[in-house]
Design goal:
The complex is a heterodimer of chains A (about 325) and B (about 80).
Chain A lengths: L2 H21 L13 E5 L2 E4 H20 L10 H20 L4 H26 L6 E4 L1 H8 L5 H12 L12 E4 L8 H29 L6 H4 L4 H49 L5 H30 L6 H4 L1
Helix pairs in contact in A: 2-4, 3-4, 4-10, 5-6, 7-9, 7-10, 9-10
Chain B lengths: L2 H20 L1 H20 L4 H31 L2
Classes of the chains: A mainly alpha (about 325), B mainly alpha (about 80).
Chain lengths: ~325, ~80
């Protein structure tokens, strides 16, 4: 398509964007960094992210049930797609981990990958467009459940003052709109749980492969210090001890990094879509939705491939780095 | 300027600085990772799949730093 024939589209798009920016006033975006409570079952508070993750679970279950209901020797359609997905993930895992551990490494990260992909796409296609569909709740209710005892009056008063200006979309003043849907991965609890499961499995695999002593030996390295003769050896041994302790610390930093990476990417994507929609209501946000789909898939893939890579690191003992390669 | 206005101003400046300064290093790092991956793909196109996989691992590590800055600025804006 040359410039001359595409010019009407460009001009039309610009006109739509300018008219949208001038004449359609969007309400200020509702941005909450934590998932908001929708309702409660007994003592359990169900947030909108948890509710959405149930929907995602049901969707995944139905999809795989439909795909594998009538298994055929020569797959076609849905079964073909699912087999391609699972086989691709399996081969990728085998490429990183080697054929000995692949059946153990494959299961949980691949499950998390599918779950996180569907969660992220749910956020882009349902969570953000329907972010104005929800119930009006007075902030007292939510805060009273979260606050403890004497702080109740203070926090309730404060949040009321803070939220009066964000009460658009037909809610009473002093009430706040709680959307029904929010991407599950835009909740730090969700991503932290996935990260903790991943890292706990890495420790389990490390103990399975190296034994408890061998696994701990990666973090508490005293052998060089014990056999030291002279000042230089002692200094090298101390450095080894320090490196081991850093390694131990990084095992816990990995959990934080995992959870913040997924949460930050998805939550920032949602905030960006909402803010761009607020600034320029029409058309400009469309390519960014495509970008967010890309980011969602890439982040799920990164979560998957990093967990497999960390499992590989965990089963590699201290000192046998050379034979591993 | 009263204390509330000063606090609000500090939050805004801090959030901007956290994201802006925090994105410099990861930006450079991701650029170097992509450069290395492209060069090695040009030299050895057969290894493309493996290289892309490990490139994403490297990018994820340096991107995590920018995400930390982002989370800090979001917390400054919406929570504190």
């Amino acid at each position: 398509m040359n410039l001359k024939s595409s010019l009407p589209y460009i001009i039309g798009g610009l006109i739509v964007a300018v008219v949208g920016a001038l004449f359609i006033k969007m309400p200020a975006p509702l941005i909450s960094i934590k998932a908001e409570p929708l309702f409660s079952i007994g003592p359990l508070t169900v947030t909108n992210s948890l509710f959405s993750s149930w929907i995602v679970t049901v969707v995944i279950f139905l999809f795989f049930f439909m795909a594998t209901r009538k298994l055929e020797y020569m797959p076609g359609g849905l079964q073909n797609f699912v087999e391609m997905l699972v086989e691709g993930l399996y081969n990728l895992t085998e490429g990183v981990s080697g054929s000995q551990w692949v059946s153990k490494f494959f299961l949980v990260p691949a499950t998390i990958f599918i779950f996180v992909v569907v969660s992220n796409l749910f956020g882009v296609f349902i969570g953000v467009p329907l972010s104005a569909v929800g119930v009006c709740e007075s902030p007292h209710h939510g805060e009273a459940a979260a606050a403890e005892g004497g702080h109740e009056a203070d926090t309730g008063h404060e949040t009321e003052a803070a939220t009066t200006e964000r009460a658009p979309l037909g809610c009473e003043p002093g009430q706040v709109l709680v959307p029904f849907f929010r991407a599950p991965s835009a909740d730090l609890n969700f991503t932290f749980a996935l990260a903790f499961i991943t890292q706990a499995m890495a420790w389990t695999f490390g103990i399975m492969a190296l034994g408890l002593g061998g696994f701990m030996g990666k973090f508490f390295i005293f052998d060089k210090l014990r056999s030291a003769k002279g000042g230089g050896d002692i200094a090298m041994g101390l450095i080894d001890v320090f490196v081991g302790l850093l390694e131990l610390l990084s095992e816990f930093v990995k959990i934080v990094a995992f959870s913040f990476r997924l949460f930050g990417n998805i939550f920032a994507g949602e905030v960006m879509l909402l803010v761009i929609t607020f600034l320029v209501p029409l058309l400009i946000v469309t390519p960014l939705i495509g970008f967010e789909v890309f980011v969602g898939i890439i982040q799920a893939f990164v979560f998957y491939i990093l967990s497999v890579a960390f499992y590989k690191v965990a089963i590699t003992g201290h000192g046998d780095h050379d034979e591993a390669h | 300027m009263d204390l509330a206005a000063a606090t609000f101003l500090g939050k805004l400046i801090g959030a901007g600085l956290a994201m802006g300064l925090g994105a410099i290093g990861p930006g450079i790092g991701i650029g170097i990772a992509a450069m290395g991956a492209l060069q090695s793909m040009a030299r050895n196109p057969d290894m493309e799949g493996t290289i892309v996989t490990y490139m994403f691992i490297g990018i994820a590590f340096s991107e995590a730093l920018a995400i930390f800055g982002l989370v800090v600025s979001l917390i400054l804006l919406f929570v504190v």
